[in-house]
Amino acid sequence: LGGVAMADAAKGSLVYVAGSWASESQTVVAVDRNGHSSSLPGIPHDKYRTIRVSPDGTRLALSTYHSVSIYDLARETPIRLATGPTRDLGAIWTPDGQRIIFTSSREGEDFAQLFARRADGTGVVERVLERGKNLVDLAPDGWSKDGRLLFSEVQPKIQCAIGQVSLERPSDVTMLVQDEFCNTGASLSPNGRWIGYNR
Q1: What pLDDT sits at residue 60?
Q2: Can you give the pLDDT at residue 4?
Q3: Cβ(131)–Cβ(171) under 8 Å?
Q4: Which of 13, 93, 180, 183 is deepest in the core (most CB within 10 A)?
Q5: pLDDT, position 117
Q6: Are 54 and 60 in contact (CB under 8 A)?
Q7: Residue 115: exposed, middle, or buried by beta-carbon count in 10 A (0-12, 13-18, 19+)?
Q8: Res 15: pLDDT
Q9: Contact between 150 and 194 (Cβ < 8 Å)
């Protein structure tokens, strides 16, 4: 039911949410190379949407439908980066591990935009990408080899397109996949030449 929220660390551990998005509550667990799993202490049961391991493998970015948190694997403590009655979800790390990019409707319930905040919880939430007020959703997916953000946008007729943009030039967007289908979840190949995505 629902989908799978998981991520793998550079050292070989897999972290995933046990259950589905439809569950009343879920537990975040870590699985080592031998298949042994254990719950991560300090993470409350919730309806988790995404989990992303930081570039250095020391932290997790967790998002429910209404909040984004950072979990320190050594200290076993989470800190809340964004929360509210509106949507705050879909967190990903910047390549340097300094900031989190996430989807939010904080400027209007039907107005999905991308925002950023420092991963240590300092500073303020800043808008980094707006694609118009007629979108059903706008989600950060990953990064190109040259550091541009890959994102998915969902139109009202559930036609989904994949684009890329430099956060330094948010008005300069290039659409990579745009047709009559719903294309989401872009992921870059290790050599940086190919993008895999859901259709």
Answers
A1: 96
A2: 47
A3: no
A4: 93
A5: 94
A6: yes
A7: buried
A8: 53
A9: no
* Residue 133, number of CB atoms within 10 A of its CB: 11
Distance CA 195, CA 118 (A): 27
pLDDT computed for residue 109 by the predictor: 67
Residues in the chain: 199
Output the pTM of the full model.
0.82
Task: Please report the pLDDT score of residue 18 as a whole number.
Answer: 54
Number of CB atoms found within 10 A of residue 98's CB: 13
Radius of gyration of the chain (CA): 16
At residue 119, the pLDDT reads 95
> Are 171 and 157 within 8 A, CB to CB?
no
All residues at 6 or more sequence positions from 16 whose CB lies less than 8 Å from its CB, including other chains: 4, 5, 6, 7, 28, 29, 31, 51
Instruction: Match 């950072």 to its residue by tokens.
Output: 70
**Given 3-state DSSP classes, what are the helix, strand and coil percentages for the chain, each rounded to the nearest 5?**
0, 50, 50
| pLDDT mean values, one per 10 residues, the chain (199 residues) | 49 54 74 89 89 94 91 93 78 95 82 91 92 84 92 86 93 91 88 89
What is the C-alpha separation between 121 and 134, in angstroms, rounded? 31
**How far apart (Å, rounded) are the C-alpha atoms in residues 12 and 19?**
22
